[in-house]
From TrEMBL:
The chain crosses the membrane at residues 67-90. Residues 138-406 form the Protein kinase domain. SUPFAM superfamilies: Protein kinase-like (PK-like). GO terms for molecular function: ATP binding; protein kinase activity. The keyword Metal-binding does not apply. This is Protein kinase, catalytic domain-containing protein.
C-alpha cells in the first residue's frame, strides 16, 4: 500500500525490489533457522541414537547453502527485470506526456454544456490572433497536431519547440496561473504584438482559451546569451569584445524602445531580464524575450520569484528594476562570470574588487585586450546596480553611454592596450 504513494515509476520499482529482497532474506533465514533448530531438537531427544556420519551432515549443509544461493540469485534476477520494466515504462510515459501536453492545452472540463457555451462566447478565442503579416498563417489545430518538443517547464509556464509541415519551427509559450482576465490579456498582448523593434523578439500570434494562454514566437536556433557564455567559459568558442558590445547595445536599445513606446501609465516593465531571456538571431544580435506578461501574474505568486542575482533590492516591477538587471548582464559581459544558476552576487564582488583597487582584475581576458574602452562601461554598469533605485540612471542614459563607447571604438582602426589604459583616463564610480 505504501508503494502506491510514490508516483515515480522508478522509485516504485526500486521499492518493490527492496521489498522482495527483504522478503527473500527473511524467508531464507527462517528456513535455515528452522532447519538448525529441528536438527538440534532431534539430537537432544535422541541422545542414545547413533550420530550420523560426518559426510552425510556435510552433504546436507551444502545442499542447504545451494538452496539459499539459488533463492538469492532468483530474487536478484526478478529485481533486475523489474528495474528494466520500470525504466521502459518511465521512458514511454515521459514521451507520451510531452506528446499529449500540447493536445491538452485547449481541452476544458466544463461542468455543464451551458457553462461551456458561456466560456466560448465570453472568454475563449478559438483561433490564433496574428500580428506579423509576413509570416505564413496557420490554424491552432495545425499547431496542436504538430510534433512538440518540450524545452522548459516550471510552475507557471511551459515552453515547446513546434515544427509545422512547412518545416518552420516556432517557440510556443504556454502560460497558466495568470491573474488577468481574458479581456486584460487581450489588451496586453495587442500592445506587445504591435511593439516592433529589431532587438525585441516579435510576438507572432497568441491564443486565449479559458485559463490556458498560448504565445507563439519564431524559434531562434542560435539559442540564448546564457548558452553562448557557457560555451565560452568551457573554451568551446570565442566571445570577442565587438560581439559583446553589439549584444549590450542591442539589449539597451530594446529596453529603451519599450520605455519610449508607451505612456507612463501603460508601460509594461520586463521584470525578468537575465542571460537566458536574451536570445540571439541568425546574426547573433540580441533579442529580448519573455516580455509583456510579468504584470499579469498575482504579485504574491511564485511565478514572480525572479532569478536571484538579477533582481533589484526593492524587488519592484519598474524601469529602475530593469536597469539593475541590465547592469548585472553588463557586468557578466565584462567579467566573463555567469550569475544565472550559480547564485553569485556579481555586483557585490565587483564593488569589493574596486574598493581594494584591484579594478584591473575584474575584467575577463578578452576585455583586458581593449584597455581603456572597458572602464566607462564598468562605470555605467556599477551605476545601474546602485542599491537605491533613485541613484540609478535611466535606460536612455545607459544607452547613450554605451553607444558613445561603441562609436569611439569603431572610429579607431585598431585597439591596443597599454599599462596605463583606463587607470589614468577613467575612474570607476564609487559604490552607492
Amino acid at each position: 500500500m505504501c508503494v502506491r504513494r510514490y508516483q515515480d515509476p522508478f522509485l516504485r520499482g526500486l521499492l518493490c525490489c527492496l521489498a522482495m529482497f527483504a522478503l527473500s532474506v527473511n524467508v531464507t533465514g527462517r528456513r535455515v533457522f528452522l532447519t538448525e533448530w529441528n536438527a538440534h531438537n532431534s539430537i537432544a531427544q535422541n541422545d542414545t541414537a547413533s550420530a550420523p556420519p560426518a559426510d552425510s551432515e556435510h552433504h546436507k549443509k551444502q545442499t542447504t547453502d545451494h538452496y539459499v544461493l539459488l533463492s538469492v540469485l532468483l530474487v536478484l534476477a526478478i529485481a533486475l527485470l523489474c528495474l528494466i520494466a520500470c525504466a521502459v515504462t518511465m521512458r514511454t510515459a515521459k514521451s507520451m506526456k510531452v506528446k499529449k501536453s500540447m493536445k491538452n492545452i485547449v481541452q476544458s472540463s466544463p461542468k455543464t454544456s451551458i457553462a461551456l457555451t458561456e466560456v466560448k462566447k465570453e472568454e475563449q478565442h478559438p483561433e490564433l490572433v496574428f500580428f506579423v503579416e509576413e509570416e505564413e498563417r496557420f490554424r491552432l489545430e495545425n499547431l496542436l497536431d504538430a510534433g512538440a518538443d518540450m524545452q522548459n517547464q516550471n510552475f507557471c509556464s511551459s515552453l515547446y519547440k513546434v515544427q509545422l509541415n512547412n518545416n518552420v519551427s516556432y517557440a510556443v509559450k504556454r502560460l497558466k496561473k495568470l491573474q488577468a482576465s481574458a479581456e486584460e490579456f487581450d489588451r496586453t498582448m495587442t500592445k506587445v504584438g504591435k511593439l516592433n523593434h529589431p532587438n525585441i523578439l516579435p510576438l507572432i500570434a497568441y491564443n486565449c482559451q479559458g485559463e490556458e494562454k498560448l504565445l507563439i514566437y519564431k524559434y531562434q536556433n542560435n539559442g540564448s546569451l546564457l548558452s553562448l557564455m557557457e560555451r565560452y567559459v568551457e573554451g568551446k568558442r570565442n566571445f570577442p569584445w565587438k560581439l559583446r558590445m553589439s549584444i549590450a547595445v542591442g539589449i539597451a536599445r530594446g529596453l529603451d524602445h519599450i520605455y519610449r513606446s508607451f505612456q507612463d501609465s501603460e508601460i509594461i516593465p520586463h521584470g525578468n531580464l537575465k542571460l537566458s531571456n536574451i536570445l540571439l538571431n541568425e546574426n547573433e544580435e540580441a533579442l529580448i524575450s519573455e516580455y509583456g506578461y510579468s504584470n499579469l501574474f498575482d504579485p504574491k505568486s511564485v511565478c514572480l520569484l525572479r532569478t536571484n542575482g538579477y533582481t533589484a533590492p526593492e524587488r519592484a516591477l519598474s524601469e529602475q528594476g530593469d536597469v539593475f538587471s541590465f547592469g548585472v548582464i553588463l557586468l557578466e559581459l565584462l567579467t566573463g562570470k555567469i550569475v544565472e544558476n550559480s547564485g553569485l552576487d556579481l555586483p557585490k564582488w565587483v564593488k569589493a574588487m574596486v574598493r581594494e583597487e584591484w579594478t584591473g582584475e575584474v575584467f575577463d581576458k578578452e576585455i583586458a585586450k581593449v584597455g581603456m574602452y572597458a572602464f566607462p562601461l564598468l562605470n555605467v554598469s556599477l551605476k545601474c546596480v546602485a542599491h537605491f533605485a533613485e541613484n540609478r540612471p535611466s535606460i536612455a542614459e545607459v544607452l547613450e553611454t554605451i553607444e558613445g563607447v561603441v562609436d569611439e571604438d569603431l572610429s579607431c582602426s585598431s585597439v591596443e592596450s597599454s599599462p596605463r589604459d583606463g587607470h589614468v583616463l577613467y575612474s570607476v564610480a564609487e559604490e552607492s
